[in-house]
Amino acid sequence: MFGKKKPVNNAAQPGAQAPKSAPQVQLPQIEFKPAAPSAQLQQGVLISCRASPQYGVAVMVIAHAINSRADQILFDFSAQGCAVRYRVDGLWERMPPMDRETGDGMLVVLKRLFILNPADRRSKQRGKLPTRFKSVDWVLHFTSEGIPSGERALVVIDTKKPVLNTLTDLGMREKLQEKYKELVNGNKAMFVFSGPAGHGLPTLWRIGLESADRFVRDFHCVFDEAMDEPEMINIANHKFNSAAGETPMSVLKSLLLKQPDALIMPDLFSTEIAQLLCDEIQKENRYAITRINANSAIEAILRLLATHRSAAKSILEVTCGAINLRLLRRLCPDCRQPFQPTPQLLQKLGIPPGRVNVLFQPFIPPPPEQRVDANGKPIEIPICRKCGGRGYFGRAAIFELLSINDEVRRAFLQNPTVDAILPVARQNGFLTLQEEGILAVATGMTSLQELQRVLSS
Ligand SMILES: [Zn+2]
Hints:
Elements lengths: L29 E3 L6 H12 L4 H13 L2 E8 L4 E7 L2 E8 L1 H14 L11 E9 L2 E12 L2 E10 L14 H11 L4 E7 L5 H10 L8 E6 L10 E6 L7 H9 L5 E4 L5 H14 L2 E7 L3 H11 L4 H7 E13 L5 E3 L3 H7 L9 E3 L30 E12 L2 H9 L3 H10 L5 H10 L5 H9 L1
Parallel strand pairs: 8-12, 8-13, 9-10, 9-11, 11-12
Antiparallel strand pairs: 1-5, 2-3, 2-7, 3-4, 5-6, 6-7, 13-16, 14-15
Helix pairs in contact: 1-3, 2-3, 7-9, 8-9, 11-12
The chain binds zinc ion.
Zinc ion binds next to loops.
């Protein structure tokens, strides 16, 4: 489950080298705001935490993780000590472990800061800690729980401001954006967002909907209160509370009385709703958008059809297209290494000769013990300041966009399998994730290794 990467040595790391007692070094300026009931109690929590010899360790881990662009920190406590991992751009990196005493002391500080019970090392505990660091507001979410080998604690680092906000941020090439907007701004049709679980579908949903034209048409979103859908500008939310016995059908029916242009359905909920939606699209010229977990755009449509069998014919008639994505890491623009691809490699990638002169690969410095010359003398290898020697900086995505015309529709009807539909889709201009990924490699956005990693997982 965790990356094989060696620790990245870009700055003073907390953990093994971290001071066990109150540190002499200047601690990073970080402001914790424990969620205590009053300002006085909050002050009390901070004073008691600062008095702990491991307060400095807790501060340094959190500051170092944020500086490393980690969005999660995982602590695994066992009899031997405390293993520390950061998740950076979706990959887990091993950090130097802590000894038991340091790790346990730090955990006590963390639990106090999150207003939890430090003595309880078995039950599941959750807490939230607003934090200010480097002029940015962060919210840290903490979970801990006893596991057979000891205890596991996870800190999720959240900012209110998402890093990726546009299709360009997400790495969608311009031509594909135009095609996507044509499909998503159509009418009398349904469009499908899809992606495998854990591969950025919620991000695509947010950015993709925000890129649709919500100012000309009115957008309405129907969802279960328990679904935790993001708030978006110019999209009216219509929630139902399934826990209280409310149904999506009742909310949808009263919404339809208002003659909405576009219906955003994070889930189709039932075949009855799917059929009603199709009827509304065809008879009332409405537009609908839904989403589903799937590994490809074709698979997404197949899954919708299989889930709502008796409405499948209608769904296929109204569906105009589907998009699917994979998240991948962007090559670090400061240290990526150009290389001349051999004609054989270009041929293998399907890139016509003369089209691309250089491709790029990440520069990953050897681990410290290998940074020596033939005589064993240490050699200085500068570590990239931007990416800290990871070779990658930030994330983007590759997309496949399936546009469904009558020919593709017939293929779905005749033989509803990916293998049978793919050649027909390709004849109609469809590029697979693999082909889109090679375009992303050719522009230097990512590396061949990264593309292979993402597509083989
Ligand atoms: Zn770099």
